[in-house]
Amino acid sequence: MAAPDFEIPQFQEHAVLDIPKIKEGAMSHIKSFVAGQSAQEYLGYPWELGENWKERAIERMGEVLKKYRSVRVFLDACVHCGACTDKCHYYLGTADPKNMPVARQELMRKVYRRYFTFGGKYFPWLVGAEDLTEEVLNDWYNYYHECSECRRCSVFCPYGIDTAEITMAGREILNYVGMGQKYSNEILVKVQKVGNNLGLPGPALEDTLAGLEEDIEADTGVPVKLPLDQKGAEILLVTPSADFFSEPHVESLIGYAKVFHAAGASWTLSSLASEAGNFGLFNGNYETMRKVAMRIRDAALELGVKRIIVGECGHAWRVAYSYWNTLTGIGYGGEDPYSQMLQKQLDHRYPQPMHICEYTWDLIQKGVLKFDKSKNDHRIITFHDSCNVARASRMGNEPGGQFTIPRNIIRAVANNFYDMDPNTIGESTYCCGGGGGLLTDDLMEVRVKGALPRMNAFNAVVQQNGVNFLALICAICKAQFTKVFPYYGFDMSMVGGVHQLVSTAIELD
Amino acid sequence: MPTIEVNGKTIEVDEEGYLVNLSDWSEEVADFLAKEEKVEMTPNHWEVVNFLREYYNEYQIAPAIRVLTKAIAKKLGPDKGNNKYLYELFPYGPAKQACKIAGLPKPTGCI
Predict the structure, then answer these.
(1) Using the 8-state DSSP alphabet, how is residue B98 labeled?
(2) Could you report the predicted ipTM of this complex, rounded to two decimals?
(3) Are strands A307-310 and A354-355 parallel, antiparallel or unpaired?
(4) Do the strands B3-6 and B9-12 form a parallel or antiparallel pair, or are they unpaired?
(5) N or C: which end of chain B has fewer CB within 10 A?
(6) CB–CB of B92 and A241 under 8 A?
(7) Around Cβ A5, how many Cβ atoms within 10 Å?
């Protein structure tokens, strides 16, 4: 690893970090690459600030306020109590006061007051209202790309203000005036043109899957299949495309395939919908999010599947669980013939969609899957709750199922499991530091520093319990920790998926 | 758009140093990009770079890490066909750093 050109934060003795003293402007030098013409044009946005950018920004803000009344409520409701200030991993890791959630929101709130409230229009100096200037716009760009939309601060807000929605609104307005982010927007083009965030075309996917089938058979002696575009299959699995491409992601894909094999299930992947992720969420643009989600509905209809299962991807599960209904399902419009068709086609004895962890846990409870837990004995495991799964979705039929089900699976397939400090898991989980469109090399300093609260709590279980494996259910978390671990002195092979553990222990006939 | 200068020829690269036009690639360009990355090219590095280019020509995408490690195991022996060895060759990660030197676009997504 090349020496970083920034200081790596130090671990503290306790699992929960002390609140740092503020360092004004500590992260103001960070600016994620701005999207170029081709990506912006494809998404229907300009690619540079035009002369009338300010009018356009205010106009878009007005539209956003109308469309999402929640944003207006959140902008009005804050009383600056400060409960959120020390809850953000980016603030804890960088000490930049603009990364306090209240201050990050204030960047927009002061502009909102100026143009949309009585007091701000006539007495701006009395109410903390400010003109939208290029300097303010640049602040938006910097700090709305130092928020991973993880919503930890919202858990502690007495008014329930969802900071992520402010960030999303900020990014939407930035896109609208020509300041999109290169990383997210190029991905949004690829997923719509090719079918996945990686830009992995069908033939490459086919070749990759065939190679994995060979590997599994060489490893286990069992011909486990990874079917692609199989019409009439019962289950469509949509999973992040990183599962086809990266380590350790691919180990979980092998795990899902083994589970399907052991259950005797008929399943398929789709080349049209070879991506579960949906960066439309990160950008706060509902129409883009719908276009990306539509591919999955199209694939489900074309293949005639009865069930849709989502692989290990945090924000994909949020979009599937919380938005699919209104994006592309029956909630999109009872009149829409395709949503009706899909509703008729799906088997409603099962939750639709279903998370792969729900599926595997269900089979474990029914006694369908057999494991040799000792095969995971070389691992001492802890589990990181992914933000979007933890705070924006559910699994199973019980409240908190999204916390218990992945842990139940781990305990069913391995003997050594320890949770991290309770203040850092469950609904209080820290973000990995790379979520929400921040998983890009140009934001490495933000990512490394933002990972500090999680790394500190992880370090505590490493010291106390000898933990050597961080189990995950999100492609972003996997990529982020693989990259960030070495900065904190840990080996990247300590990072892996929950279904990687399943894959290690499962017994196949 | 930033550029690099190799053997008197001006070549366009993006903000992160990846070639804008794949056809601008040559072994000299690869050597130049490797130096910028502080990677010293050995025959084993070239095996990886050449395989990436062959695969890209066929599939218009860099190979998945598994596909790459298997191909390298065949060419350089099973002890070298693993992620760890690839990271020894390309410390910033085989997917991104080796692709840059091979003149391929940067793989994107949750990787």
Answers:
(1) I
(2) 0.94
(3) parallel
(4) antiparallel
(5) N
(6) no
(7) 7
Neighbours of A474 (CB within 10 A): 30
User: Which residue reads 């900020």 in tokens?
Assistant: A170
**A469 located within any domain:** yes
Same domain, A67 and A143: yes
Is pLDDT above 80 for A500?
yes
Q: Is position A417 within any domain?
A: yes
* Residue among A197, A201, A211 minimizing CB distance to B109: A197
Helix crossing, A498-505 with A356-365: angle to 10°?
40
Q: Are residues A207 and A353 in the same domain?
A: yes
Determine whether the interchain pair A201/B59 forms a contact, defined as Cβ–Cβ distance below 8 Å. yes
Evaluate whether A143 touches A98 at the Cβ level (below 8 Å). yes
CB pair distance less than 8 Å for B61 and A215: no
Q: Residues A358-396: pLDDT tens digits? A: 999 999 999 999 999 999 999 999 999 999 999 999 999
Give the Cα separation of A400 and A12 in Å (integer). Answer: 30
For residue A35, the chain B residue with the least C-alpha distance is B15
- Does B99 qualify as catalytic in the annotation? no
- Flag if A240 and B96 touch (Cβ within 8 Å): no
- By the 8 A CB rule, do A374 and A380 touch? no
Phi, psi of A404 (to 5 degrees): -80, -40
Q: Supply A292's token pair.
A: 């990306």
CB of B37 within 8 A of CB of B97?
yes
The last residue of a domain, from among A132, A166, A185: A185
Name the closest residue on chain B to residue A436, using Cα atoms.
Answer: B110
Residue by residue, DSSP assigns A382-436 as EEPPPHHHHHH---SSSTTHHHHHHHHHHHHH-S-B----GGGSGGGPPP-S--T
Q: Do the Cβ atoms of A383 and A405 come closer than 8 Å?
A: no
User: What does DSSP assign to residue A323?
Assistant: I
Task: Tell me whether residue A344 is in a domain.
Answer: yes
Domain shared by A382 and A481, yes or no: yes
Burial class (CB in 10 A: 0-12, 13-18, 19+), A486: middle
**Residues belonging to chain B:** 111
Which residue carries 């599962």 as its tokens? Answer: A243
Whether residue A132 is found in the same domain as residue A212: no
What is the 3-state secondary structure of A50-113? Answer: CCCHHHHHHHHHHHHHHHCHHHHHHHHHCCCCCCCCCCCHHHHHHCCHHHCHHHHHHHHHHHHH
Token pair in block for residue A91: 């603030």
A398: Cα within 13 Å, side-chain hemisphere: 6
Domains, chain B, in order of start with CATH, read 3-101 (1.10.10.370)
Domain-embedded: residue A6: no
- The verdict on whether omega for the bond into residue B91 sits within 30 degrees of 0, i.e. cis, is no
Digit-coded pLDDT (tens) for A258-312: 999 999 999 999 999 999 999 999 999 999 999 999 999 999 999 999 999 999 9
Indicate whether A58 and A156 sit together in one domain. Answer: yes
Q: Please state the length of chain A.
A: 509
CA distance A183 to A501: 31
- Domains contained in chain A, number: 3
Contacts of A462 (CB under 8 A, 6+ apart): A468, A490
Total beta-carbon pairs less than 8 A apart between chain A and chain B: 94
Domain of residue A114, CATH code: 1.10.1060
Same domain, residue pair A331 and A198: yes
Which domain covers residue A219, as residue numbers?
A: 194-357
Strand, coil or helix: A237 = strand
Judge if A428 and A393 occupy the same domain.
Answer: yes
Classify the phi-psi angles of A132: left when phi > 0, otherwise alpha if psi is within -120 to 50, otherwise beta: beta
